[in-house]
What does this fold into?
Amino acid sequence: MSHSQSKSLSFISGIGVFILSLMLHTVFGLFAALASRNASEIYQKIKLPDLALDAVWYGRVWMVLYVFLALAVCLVWSKRDEFLVEKVIVPYAIHLVLQASWSWIFFDIGRADFALMQILFLWVVSFWLMCAFMRIHFMAGLLMLAYQAWLSFAAYVNGAVLLLNGANVLVTSAQ
It folds into this structure.
């Protein structure tokens, strides 16, 4: 196999990994969206901090972040010959479950206190992942940095909602 054929196969393989990663993130995003089916109603009825965004922006930001995350995983996977990327892929998969479950905890169960604990744990896990990704592929780490910034903002909003409304946002939103 010539060098150019090898590069072409590597590029095609990279696109396949990206598409697979994007599909995986989409599945987790759909789970979060299903758990958030009442989000608009709840969001309109609870007291929000001054810096909270309009509800429509959260979905848009998550779409961009899922692309960033899928690309970050693809970049890390591309270094599998140089690093033991399996050591970060399993924690990454666990992080996806944590990420998707936040919507379920906050909007379905209606518990801002449990959601805050969960997002703080998610923040720690994703910070570790960001550092690990940065060591493997610098750009993957930068993509994770954008995600980390968003999680920081989301934790602020979650914490402020807890302070303004109490632990059970479903009770608050029903009043």
User: Anything to note?
Assistant: Helices lie at 3-35, 39-45, 55-77, 86-108, 112-136, 138-165, 169-174.
